[in-house]
Design goal:
This protein is mainly α and 504 residues long. The protein has 11 helices and no strands.
Length: 504
C-alpha cells in the first residue's frame, strides 16, 4: 500500500475509481428516490380511488336504505289498504306484485353490486397494504444502502483527504529536492570556479617557486664563491700574518667581494635616493616589523627543538629560528606583493635588498652562536698558556668562521633581516657529514650490505631527493602571526625546496 501511495499515477487512478464509485452511488440513490416518488404518487392515487369508492359505497348504502324504507312504506301502505278495503282487486294486486318483484330484483342486484364493490374494496385495500409494505421495505433497503454508501463515501473522502495530504507532502519534498539540486548545482559551479582559480594560482605559484629556486641556486653559488674566497683570504692572512683592514660596520675585509656586495647594497638602500623619504619610511617600517617578528621567533625557538629522523635527535635553536624566520620572511614578501601599485616598486627593491642581505645575516647568526659557544668553552677551560692555534677550528670545516671572533657584530638594522634556507641547509649538511645511525637507510651506489633485499615498490610512487615537495604550515603558526594574510599568502608560506642529499 505504501508503494501505491508513493506512486502518483496509482494514486490518481485510485482517486478516479473512487470518483466513479461515488457517481454510481449517487445515480443509484437518485433512481431509488425516483421510484419512491412514483410509489408514493401511486399510493396517493390509490388512496383517492379508495376514498371515491367508499363514497360510492356509502351512497349506494344510502340509496339502498331509502329504497328499503320506500319498499317498507309501500308494503305497509298495501297492508293498510287491504285491511281497510277488504280484498284488493286482481289488477292492483298484480301490479303490486310486479313492483315487488322488480324491487326484489333491484335489491338483489344492488346487494350483488354492493358485495362486488365490497370485494373490490377489500382487494384494493389488500393491494394498497401490499404496496405500502413493498414501499416500506424498499425504503428501508434504500435507507440501508444510502447509509452504507454514506459510510463508504466518508471513508473514501477520508482516504482522498489523506492521499491529498500525502500528495502535498510529496510535492513539498519534490520542491525541496529541486531547491537542494539547484543549490548543489550553484555550489558545484562555485567549487569548479574555485578549483580553476586554485589551479591558476598553483600554476602561478609553481612558476614563482621555480624562479625562487633559480634565485636560491644562484644565492647558493654566491655563498660557495664567498666561502671559497673567504677561505683563501684567511689562508693568506694566516700565512702572511699581516693585519687586515675591516669595514667599520661589517665583518668582511674592505678589499673582499663580500665587502663590495655590502657596499653596493647599502648604496642601493640608502645612498642612491636620499630624497625619497616615503620609500625610506616604508623600509624603516618593514625593518621594524621584521625585527619584532624576529624577537617573537627567537622566544619561541629558545623553548623548542626540531627533530630530524635518521640523525641527531635535536638541533640547535638556530635551525628552528631560521626556519620560522624564513616563513616570516616569505610572508613579508607576500604582504609586500599584495600592496598597492604605488608601493610595488619600493617593495621589489626591498625584496632584492633582503635577498642580498640574507647571506650576510646567515653568516652573522652562525658566527655569533659559535662565538658564544667558544667563549663559554674558553671560560670553562683552565687558564693554560696554550698555543692560540689549538683553539682554532680547521679552515676546511663549516665552523671555521669562528676564527674571526674579534670582529664587531652587525648593527640592528642589518641584523633584523631574515636569511634564506642557506644556514639550515649547511646545518643539515654538517649533521649528515657527522657519523650516525641515520645513514644506514640511505642507498649508497656500489655498496651492498649483508642480507640486502630490494623493496617491492611501485615505480610510479617512487620519490627522489630532487623532487619537489609541498609542505603545509601548521595551524599554530598561523594563529601566532601578528597580521592577517590572504589565501595567496598562505600558499606562499609553504615553499617547495629541493631535498638535500647526504654528503658522500
Amino acid at each position: 500500500m505504501t508503494k501505491t501511495y508513493n506512486d502518483i499515477d496509482a494514486v490518481t487512478r485510485l482517486l478516479e475509481e473512487k470518483e466513479r464509485d461515488l457517481e454510481l452511488a449517487a445515480r443509484i440513490g437518485q433512481t431509488l428516490l425516483k421510484k419512491n416518488r412514483v410509489l408514493s404518487e401511486q399510493n396517493e392515487y390509490l388512496e383517492e380511488q379508495v376514498g371515491t369508492i367508499r363514497e360510492e359505497v356509502a351512497q349506494l348504502h344510502h340509496e339502498l336504505n331509502l329504497k328499503d324504507e320506500l319498499l317498507q312504506f309501500y308494503t305497509n301502505a298495501a297492508e293498510e289498504s287491504e285491511e281497510g278495503s277488504g280484498s284488493p282487486t286482481g289488477s292492483s294486486l298484480d301490479i303490486l306484485q310486479q313492483k315487488l318483484r322488480d324491487l326484489e330484483e333491484e335489491n338483489i342486484s344492488l346487494r350483488s353490486e354492493a358485495s362486488q364493490l365490497k370485494s373490490e374494496t377489500e382487494s384494493y385495500e389488500e393491494k394498497e397494504q401490499q404496496l405500502v409494505n413493498d414501499c416500506v421495505r424498499e425504503l428501508r433497503q434504500s435507507s440501508i444502502q444510502i447509509s452504507s454508501i454514506a459510510e463508504e463515501l466518508a471513508k473514501k473522502t477520508e482516504d482522498a483527504s489523506r492521499q491529498q495530504e500525502e500528495i502535498t507532502h510529496l510535492l513539498s519534498q519534490i520542491v525541496d529536492l529541486q531547491k537542494k539540486a539547484k543549490t548543489c548545482a550553484v555550489e558545484n559551479e562555485e567549487l569548479s570556479q574555485h578549483l580553476s582559480a586554485a589551479k591558476d594560482a598553483q600554476r602561478q605559484l609553481t612558476a614563482e617557486l621555480q624562479e625562487l629556486e633559480e634565485k636560491y641556486s644562484e644565492c647558493i653559488e654566491m655563498l660557495h664563491e664567498a666561502q671559497e674566497e673567504l677561505k683563501n683570504l684567511r689562508n693568506r692572512s694566516v700565512s702572511a700574518g699581516t693585519p687586515r683592514r675591516y669595514h667599520p660596520l661589517g665583518l668582511f675585509p674592505m678589499d673582499s667581494l663580500a665587502a663590495e656586495i655590502e657596499g653596493t647594497m647599502r648604496k642601493e638602500l640608502s645612498l642612491e635616493n636620499p630624497d625619497n623619504e616615503e620609500q625610506r619610511v616604508r623600509h624603516k617600517r618593514v625593518f621594524e616589523t621584521v625585527k619584532n617578528i624576529n624577537q617573537s621567533v627567537r622566544q619561541r625557538s629558545a623553548n623548542s627543538a626540531t627533530n630530524i629522523p635518521g640523525s641527531n635527535q635535536t638541533l640547535s635553536s638556530l635551525s628552528s629560528a631560521l626556519s620560522d624566520s624564513n616563513i616570516t620572511h616569505l610572508s613579508l614578501f607576500s604582504d609586500c606583493s599584495v600592496d598597492t601599485p604605488e608601493k610595488r616598486s619600493g617593495s621589489e627593491g626591498l625584496k632584492l635588498a633582503l635577498r642580498r642581505l640574507s647571506l650576510r645575516r646567515q653568516n652573522c647568526l652562525s658566527e655569533r652562536l659559535f662565538f658564544e659557544g667558544e667563549r663559554e668553552r674558553r671560560n670553562r677551560e683552565p687558564a693554560d698558556s696554550g698555543d692560540y692555534s689549538n683553539r682554532l677550528v680547521h679552515s676546511e670545516s663549516i665552523m671555521s668562521l669562528g676564527a674571526w671572533a674579534s670582529r664587531p657584530y652587525l648593527p640592528d638594522k642589518l641584523q633584523i633581516v631574515k636569511p634564506l634556507e642557506g644556514s639550515a641547509t649547511l646545518q643539515h649538511w654538517q649533521q649528515l657529514a657527522q657519523p650516525n645511525l641515520g645513514s644506514i637507510l640511505d642507498a649508497r651506489p656500489g655498496v651492498v650490505p649483508k642480507g640486502f633485499r630490494p623493496l617491492e615498490l611501485d615505480l610510479e610512487e617512487v620519490y627522489h631527493y630532487a623532487d619537489y615537495e609541498e609542505d603545509e604550515p601548521g595551524e599554530q603558526y598561523f594563529q601566532s602571526l601578528p597580521t592577517t594574510i590572504n589565501s595567496r599568502d598562505e600558499m606562499l608560506l609553504a615553499p617547495k625546496l629541493p631535498k638535500q642529499t647526504s654528503l658522500k
